[in-house]
Amino acid sequence: MRPLARISEYLSVALGRYSYGMALAALAAAAVSGVMSLSDAVGQMVKTPGATPRPAIEAGLMFSHLAFGMVSMSMAGLLAGELASEALFHLSLPVRREEYALAWLLTAVWVPLVLEIVSPAVPLAILDPRLITGIAVGPMVLRAAEDSLMFSTILWSALLKRKGVVTAYGLTAVLFLPAIVGLVLAITGVIWGAPPAALRLIFYILPATTGTMMGGLAQVSDGAALIVCGSLAIVSQLGLVFWFRNRLEVS
Amino acid sequence: MLRPAGVLLICLALGGLISLSLSSRFSSIYVGPVDTIVESVKVEEGRWVVMAASVEFEVPSMEGVGFLVQVRANSMEVFPNPPTPVGTPTPPLITPAPIPTKFESATLYILDDKVGRAIGLPWTAGAPTTVLNIAREVPHLAANSAGLQAPDWSRGEYLEGEISIPGEGKWYLVFVGEVTVDQPIPGSGINQTVECFVDAEIAARVHPELGQYLRTAYLAGVGVLLIALDWIRRKGVAPSAPS
User: Fold this and answer.
1) How far apart are the CA of A13 and the nearest CA of chain B, in angstroms?
2) Phi-psi region for residue A34, left (φ > 0), alpha (ψ -120 to 50) or beta?
3) Residue B125 DSSP class
4) What is the reported pTM?
5) With 90 as the cut, is the pLDDT of residue B179 above it?
6) Which of B19, B33, B57 sits opposite A38 (nearest CB)?
7) Which of B3, B19, B33 minimises the CB distance to A30?
8) DSSP A160
9) Which of A67, A122, B6, B172 is the most buried (most CB within 10 A)?
């Protein structure tokens, strides 16, 4: 059996356990994010000299991020459970550790990430396919880079083999982090007028979240934020594969 | 993998349909403001015409979406301006009490960009002196028009209305209102000005049409097809029951 076929085989097993949950999340994201995305996308298409530039589909993506953050957390919870009990069984089958890691990266990071972006875009495509090519893609790319990093860190937490830890970290990262970041930025803004240099790193690590909250006030180049956040995501995911290959111990 | 993918496609189609249905139930989607320049002209004793013209705005062609301009104007008030005696120090600024006006009519017009430019729009350097002539010509040139209901200004009501934009392209909005004053106005040597603010906003309304329903059905149909393929594949793989 070829590596790709082995990954695909295991992927279908891993995804199969939560496929209907993903479908439900997609339905919710398409329905709710779609409403927000439609209004933003329609607004972007009208040109008036007096109109202020509107965000792309940031608000829609935020809800989609919450829905698929929960999905990613659930998938990472499954991995934690599997590592604590039956991973040895799967790894005794003709599947290599790297392939096992890649299958889980696809399951808990890349499939939710793709659906997170696609779900708000489907209502736009149904309304008028030209809307898809007309909207600004910058915020989508930043959101994808940030969540590829965030979801992979949730997968890292699964290595502790405790579902409770995954749930606590996942909820913090997906639900509470935007609120915490917003609060910290607001407090530092009130005290010092602008966030201190060390805290400005957060604009590069969480470009989509801080961009949604602060808009143009973040004053960070999208390209620089994408490079920093994207590099961290790649390092995090490659690190995960190497950890599975060299350091992982299963029960 | 086929069945989950099929279910996913059906869910996405259903979610898309729900979002379109929710969007169409909203009264309108706010798009953005349009700047207007307002000018008032005294036609004869006790009768004023107020005209507002917008900057140029451009709307795209979009399936299932209709664009409109929503307009809101406050009461048109006539203010007497006592003449300033020459050679005397500027008197302290006292805001004169407005003279109540009676609403006569108000109409919104949508003009395409060529017609608008032909009559001197946009008013980048302020309104021209030929405002009254423009107000007379506009009804014959407009691509669309809509009359506004009389407001009760004594109760603080705004003059509100909307007009649909005929289609794709560049357009101007023109507002023409007329008021009269019932009571006698202070005598000669006193100017009057009319004050009125006209705010205009572009909005959109979603009306799903056949095209949207067909696209939803297509997406859901592909999902059903994937589920059917999965069912056929499973049936083919499953061992037949012993006879």
Assistant:
1) 9
2) alpha
3) T
4) 0.80
5) no
6) B19
7) B19
8) G
9) A122
How, if at all, do strands B102-112 and B144-147 pair? antiparallel
Tokens read off for B78: 């006539």
- CB-based contact B4 A22, cutoff 8 Å: yes
Beta bridge partners of residue B203, listed in sequence order: B30, B68
Question: Exposed/middle/buried for B145, CB within 10 Å: 0-12, 13-18, 19+?
Answer: middle
Cβ-defined contact of B16 to A126 (cutoff 8 Å): yes
Dump pLDDT digits (tens) for B74-122.
877 777 765 555 555 555 556 667 777 888 889 999 999 999 888 888 8
What mean pLDDT do residues A80-91 have?
Answer: 75
Q: What is the pLDDT of residues B116-171, one digit of tens each?
A: 888 888 887 777 777 888 888 899 999 999 998 888 877 888 889 999 999 899 99
**Cβ pair A46:B15 closer than 8 A:** no
Confidence of residue A218 (pLDDT cuts 50, 70, 90): low
A15 has a chain B CB within 8 A of its CB: yes
Q: What is the ipTM of this complex?
A: 0.85
B212 contacts A51? CB cut-off 8 A: no
Tell me, yes or no, if A45 comes closer than 8 A to chain B by beta carbon. yes
How many other CB atoms are found less than 10 A from the CB of residue A225?
22
B15 and A119 in contact by Cβ < 8 A? Answer: yes
- Over residues A222-236, the mean pLDDT reads 92
CA distance B66 to B64: 7
Q: Do A38 and B29 touch (CB under 8 A)?
A: yes
Domain residue limits, chain A:
3-247
Which residues 72-111 of B have a C-beta within 8 angstroms of A?
Answer: none
CA distance B204 to B164: 9
What per-residue confidence (pLDDT) applies to B166? 92
Nearest chain B residue to A15, by CA = B1
